[in-house]
Specification:
The chain is α/β, with parallel strands linked by helices and 459 residues long. It is built from 20 helices and 12 strands. Strands 2-1-3-4-5 form a 5-stranded parallel β-sheet, sandwiched between helices. Helix 3 links the parallel strand 3 and strand 4. Helix 4 crosses helix 6 and helix 17 packs across helix 18. It starts with 6 loop residues before the first strand and ends with a helix.
Length: 459
């Protein structure tokens, strides 16, 4: 069908945006009609059939979700694209649940809208299967990169396949894992998180697979591992890149066979548990280098979701600041004024090596130390302090390309600990791992820690 014959209804209660979207689509050759409310949209829908409806979700007198049944009843083949300034996993899930073709978060470029419209009208595509909506999540933002994450969650959550979440420390990988569970096929089942980097090698197998009484010294009773504890739900394996090779083999067998064998057990147990894993490392590169099992990587990453760093979606900083502020104010049952344009400019100029978690910590510190987010001098001091910590890392020596990954890791950790004058708590923060993970790495890599270093840590 020629696109000039396609009829589009554009619905938005913002007159200027409504006009811009309509004019843009008319220039593309489409026949466009407009509605500024849900009531006007209903009148238009009753009088004509449309090939596509582009609508804001929140219309003042109703939501576009409320209109969808009427649209589908009058014209089942109509494509629907929803736009909103309040992008969340929930709105993406609600859109998918209602049979929406696509979902676009404001602010967006008009070329993006045109591209989505072309995708809907210039090819046949099945309406996605619905997923069940769930409670509010803490994932916040409307930047296109984070909206892509919302849509990825909505697409893969119902599929019973492993998901690998990648991204820098502090980008919100566990939040995405929890969203996958909430919108998955078994949201009522357990969600069991386990940090693979925080458990000693001698205990990790028992923590994952469980053990039987008497199977080793100290095993005084049967113990269910995380995988069996998550039966009928989701096990979240954080820092999966820290898992020893021997256990990668056993997890691979579980992913292939759907069964586990607790330590000391003579028989395997069938377990229906979904696996979601996360890492801040480049596991594809490590698999190619032979430091991570290649077969395990490909089985684990049946579907991958990458979380963007905060520096790549700085337009979301005001939304995130207000989100964290409102949560902390509600928790403390007190009032706190919002921030200022001057402070938002300072926040936008910061590099955020700790990503969203670092921003949340800054908001918390500001509310505790200054009682608000409007103290420009105080917040500048916190940002300067964070920048100083980052400079410590930048001052570290570089190493030649003839080292193995393990040798380079050992030298880097030693250098960070030295720069921090033996304060391993501070070193762990700079390295982007928790303190227990750093202790485990120190032991595994044979890094010597003097009494002075331990003393510095405690001071």
């Amino acid at each position: 069908m020629n696109k000039r014959k396609h009829k589009i209804l554009v619905v938005d209660d913002d007159p200027s945006l409504l006009e811009m979207m309509s004019m843009t689509l008319r220039k593309e050759g489409y026949s466009v009609q407009e509605a500024r409310s849900a009531a006007e949209a209903r009148d238009q829908i009753e009088g004509a059939e449309f090939d596509l409806v582009v609508s804001d979700i929140y219309l003042g007198d109703a939501t576009a979700i409320d209109l969808l049944d009427e649209i589908h009843n009058s014209s089942p083949d109509t494509f629907i694209i929803l736009v909103t300034a309040q992008g969340t996993v929930e709105t993406a899930a609600a859109a998918r649940n209602a049979g929406v073709f696509d979902y676009l978060a404001k602010p967006f470029k008009l070329e993006q809208l045109v591209g989505r419209v072309h995708a809907a009208l210039d090819q046949e595509q099945a309406i996605p299967a619905p997923i069940e909506a769930g409670p509010e999540t803490m994932i916040v933002g409307s930047h296109p990169s984070i909206v892509d994450v919302y849509k990825a969650v909505a697409r893969v959550a119902p599929a019973d396949i492993p998901v690998l979440i990648s991204g820098e420390t502090g980008t919100g990988k566990e939040l995405v894992a929890r969203a996958l569970h909430r919108f998955g096929s078994n949201p009522e089942g357990p969600f069991v998180p386990i940090n693979c980097g925080a458990i000693p090698d001698t205990l990790i197998e028992s923590e994952l697979f469980g053990h039987r009484r008497g199977s080793f010294t100290g095993a005084e009773r049967d113990h269910k591992g995380a995988i069996e504890s998550a039966r009928g739900g989701t096990v979240f394996l954080d820092e999966i890149g820290e898992l020893p090779m021997s256990l990668q083999v056993k997890l691979l067998r579980f992913l292939q066979e759907g069964e586990i064998r607790p330590i000391g057990s003579e028989s395997a147990i069938d377990v229906s548990t979904r696996v979601v894993a996360a890492t801040h490392r480049d596991l594809r590169a490590e698999a190619a280098a032979g430091t991570f099992r290649e077969d395990f990587f490909y089985r684990l990453s049946a579907y991958q979701i990458h979380l963007p760093p905060l520096r790549d979606r700085q337009s979301d900083i005001p939304l995130l600041v207000e989100h964290f502020r409102s949560r902390k104010v509600g928790t403390n049952d007190c009032e706190s004024q919002g921030t200022t344009p001057e402070i938002l400019e300072m926040l936008a100029a910061h590099d955020w090596p700790g990503n969203v978690r670092e921003l949340e910590n800054l908001v918390r510190r500001s509310l505790i130390d200054f009682g608000s987010l409007a103290d420009a001098a105080g917040i500048k001091g916190l940002l300067d302090e964070a920048t100083h910590e980052t400079e410590i890392t930048h001052q570290l020596p570089t190493f030649g390309d003839d080292l193995t990954i393990e040798e380079a890791e050992r030298l880097h950790i030693e250098a960070v600990i030295a720069r921090c004058e033996g304060n391993r708590t501070r070193a762990a923060e700079i390295l982007g791992v928790d303190r227990k993970s750093l202790y485990r790495k120190v032991r595994r890599l044979g890094i010597e820690v003097t009494e002075n270093e331990e003393g510095s840590q405690q001071s």
